[in-house]
């Protein structure tokens, strides 16, 4: 996917509520809003060419967003896309729809770790196996100099096979990584 161009201003920003079910943006049909936060919303969507379910995260304010919000969204996008690990959410594409940057990601339908912890206490073996997978995903980010900084049960989602995935790199910090050669 091409890098996001924050300077492109081909279309005026839309009002915050411009997203709606059934709307099509850049080859994705929005199905339902599945989350929202201070900076953006996340939608369950269908990728039209493949008919595959994906998640679309879109910054709310578009070009009216403060440059710090746009930079933070871009940093999150780059951090998540950099980490290739089975226990980190996969980024599919960066894009821009009507002046709003968006991120297309794999859709995770298995709920969050917070949900699982609220249902029942995990058995020790299950908890240990889960922790190892989460730590391996976080280590893959650390190997690239990316520190998540917001790791919590709400930021661990599960796919439909029950595999955990680290999500939401919105507060991640990119450290300089030096490579030592012998």
Description:
With 182 residues, this protein is of the alpha+beta class. It is built from three helices and ten strands. The strands form three sheets. It has a six-stranded antiparallel beta sheet with strand order 1-2-3-4-6-5, with helices on one face. It is globular, with a radius of gyration of 17 Å.
Give a brief rundown of this model.
It contains three helices and ten strands.
DSSP summary, beta strand count: 10
Largest sheet: 6 strands, antiparallel
Q: Order of strands across the biggest sheet?
A: 1-2-3-4-6-5
Q: Uncertain segments of ≥5 residues (pLDDT<50)?
A: 1-16
Termini gap: 35 Å
Helix content: 10-25%
What's the mean pLDDT score? 83
Q: Compute the gyration radius: what is it?
A: 17 Å
- Write down the overall geometry: globular
Total helix count?
Answer: 3
Elements, N to C (H/E): EEEEHEEHHEEEE
Structural class: alpha+beta
Question: Beta fraction of the residues?
Answer: 25-35%
Search tags:
182 residues, alpha+beta, six-stranded antiparallel beta sheet, two-stranded antiparallel sheet, 10 strands, disordered N terminus
Produce the secondary structure layout:
Blueprint lengths: L23 E2 L2 E9 L3 E8 L4 E8 L7 H16 L8 E7 L2 E7 L6 H7 L4 H20 L2 E2 L8 E3 L5 E3 L6 E2 L8
Antiparallel strand pairs: 1-2, 2-3, 3-4, 4-6, 5-6, 7-10, 8-9
């Amino acid at each position: 996917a091409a890098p996001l161009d924050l300077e492109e201003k081909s279309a005026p920003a839309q009002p915050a509520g411009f997203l709606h079910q059934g709307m099509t943006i850049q080859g994705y049909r929005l199905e339902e809003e599945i989350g929202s936060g201070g900076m953006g919303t996340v939608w369950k969507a269908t990728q039209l060419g493949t008919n595959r379910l994906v998640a679309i995260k879109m910054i709310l304010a578009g070009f009216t967003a403060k440059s710090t919000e746009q930079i933070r969204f871009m940093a999150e996008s780059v951090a998540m896309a950099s980490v290739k690990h089975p226990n980190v959410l996969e980024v599919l594409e960066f894009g821009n729809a009507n002046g709003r940057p968006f991120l297309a990601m794999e859709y995770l339908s298995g709920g969050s770790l917070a949900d699982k912890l609220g249902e029942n206490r995990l058995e020790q073996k299950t908890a240990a196996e889960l922790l190892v997978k989460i730590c391996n995903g976080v280590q893959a980010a650390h190997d690239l100099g990316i520190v998540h900084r917001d790791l919590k049960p709400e930021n661990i989602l599960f796919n439909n096979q029950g595999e955990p995935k680290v999500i939401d790199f919105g507060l991640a910090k990119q450290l300089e990584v030096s490579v030592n050669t012998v």
